[in-house]
Every structure is written in C-alpha cells, then in structure tokens.
Design a protein that fits this description.
By secondary structure, this protein is an all-alpha fold.
C-alpha cells in the first residue's frame, strides 16, 4: 500500500527530467537552425570563392564545386594592392584600439566610482549622444577636418578614437560597478589617488572588459567603409573595405575572385573573435550584472 506513492513520485521526477531534457534539446536545435540560417551567406561566399569560372552561373545551385579553384585567391590578391591596403587598415585599427581604450577608461571610472556634482546628469547626457545619428554630424565634422587640413590623411580616422565612445564608456562603467567598493575605499585609506586606483587596481581587474572594448574598436575600424570613403582620396591610402569596393568596380563580373577577396578580408575578424571568444563573452556578461 505504501509503494504506490513512492512509485508515483519517482515517475513524476523522471517525467520532469525528461521534459527538461526535451526543452534543452529543442532550444539547442532551434539555436543550431538559426545559426545555420545566418551561416548560409558566409558558406555561399566561401563556396563561390572556390568555384572555377565555368560553374559561376548555372541553372541549379552548386554548393560544392567539381574542382576546388585555389588559384582564385592568388588572382584576387594580385588584382588589387591587397598588402598595401592591409597595412593601412592595420595601422588605422591599431591606433583606433589604443585611442579607444585610453580615452574610455578614465570617464568610465569617473562615472562609476568618483563622486562629483552633476555626475548622473552628465552620464545621461553622454547616453543621449547615442541617439544622435552619425549622418547628422557628418557634414560639420567633414568641414572641421577640412579646415584643419586633415582631408586625405589618416587623422580623421584615428583622432576621434582618442575622444571616447559613449557606448564603450557605458560598458566599462557597468563593469566597474561590479568591483567591490571596499577595495576602492581601502586604496583611498592607503593614500592612493583616483588616477593610481584606476591604473594600478581597477585596470588589472577589468581585463575582460578592456579586451571586449578593444575587440569592438578593432571590428569597427576594420569594417568601417563610410569614413575612409569620405576622407581618403589617394588610392595608396585606401583601406581594405574601400579597396574591395574598388575591386568590385573593376572586376565585378568575376564573382569568384570578388568572393575570394571578401573571404580574405573577413577571415581576420573570425580568427580574432575565435581567439578572444571566452574573454569577449565574459566581458559582455559581467558588464550587465549591476546597473
């Protein structure tokens, strides 16, 4: 008589576990389907980059070419000055990453840990700038750079990074808020200034957030097309994105070469993300723990 309730409880536990396992399986299948959906254009780009000319335009969709045309990559890199554009892009991206990190750390710390009059007001003013479309300031900023004589130089692409980024400052502020206040107070008692606390205590503890900011800055600088197109006139100063558009204008009918060049330009972003994936995800996660 007493075994029935126990059997019923065991059956309920087993049924709940089975339902939980099915929910997890369904969620993973859904995510895999969405990931595959987003991967289709990338897979098609890679597939096209490896096709010979005879298989570019066919009546049926061909994902795997009959012959892997590796020579498309060599021809694509020779069709335009890839290494020159790569050097320009790396130079700009390196300075942008450096300027973004250096300019975003102090204001983020000031908004998170320093007490000063009007702090919340100016923080909301900074967030309000995120709602201002860049197209609104495009003309006045261009006129300013022309007045400074910076047109057709790398300065308009590099210097703005040393004046902070509202979104990245907000991210770093959120991360700084997760640090224990007792640590900051102890540093004050030891006679440390805010500048010393920032660079000797806070920065070593916030490497995931700093790596996330650096990764964002690198991706934005690497994929930026509008600013180099506007400010650069000399073809020897083009970046990879502008160079790809230049390649499209001259070799638009050779889609396999165009896709090969696109794969080569995209590959560094994928490699950087894969190498910094754990740090990037950790930085994104921890920046939302405290408001």
């Amino acid at each position: 008589m007493r075994a029935a309730p126990e059997v019923r409880q065991v059956g309920q536990v087993g049924g709940s576990r089975r339902r939980g396992w099915l929910r997890v399986l369904g969620a993973h299948l859904l995510l895999m389907g969405l990931a595959l959906l987003y991967m289709i254009p990338i897979l098609w780009m890679v597939s096209t980059s490896l096709k010979p000319d005879s298989e570019l335009f066919t009546e049926r969709i061909v994902w795997i070419p009959s012959r892997i045309a590796w020579e498309n990559y060599a021809q694509a890199l020779q069709a335009f000055p890839f290494w020159l554009y790569l050097r320009n892009t790396l130079l700009i991206a390196g300075f942008v990453v450096l300027g973004t990190v250096l300019s975003c750390l102090p204001p983020a710390y000031a908004f998170a840990r320093m007490r000063w009059r009007g702090r919340n007001f100016w923080f909301w003013v900074m967030l309000g700038t995120l709602m201002l479309p860049p197209q609104v300031t495009l003309l006045p900023v261009f006129l300013l750079f022309r007045w400074l004589g910076w047109i057709d130089t790398f300065l308009p692409l590099i210097v703005p990074a040393f004046f902070g980024n509202a979104f990245l400052i907000f991210m770093l502020r959120q991360f700084f808020l997760t640090l224990p206040q007792e640590l900051i107070d102890a540093a004050y008692l030891d006679g440390c200034t805010d500048w010393t606390i920032l660079w000797r205590i806070v920065v070593p503890l916030t490497k995931p957030a700093i790596a996330t900011v650096a990764l964002f800055a690198f991706v934005w600088a690497w994929t930026d097309f509008m600013a180099p197109l506007i400010y650069l006139n000399d073809s020897s100063k083009f970046t990879l994105t502008v160079g790809l558009q230049y390649f499209l204008g001259r070799h638009g009918e050779q889609w396999n070469l165009l896709m090969a060049a696109a794969v080569v330009i995209t590959a560094p972003l994928v490699l950087v993300f894969l190498m910094a994936q754990r740090t990037f995800i950790r930085g994104i996660t921890l920046t939302g723990l405290k408001g």
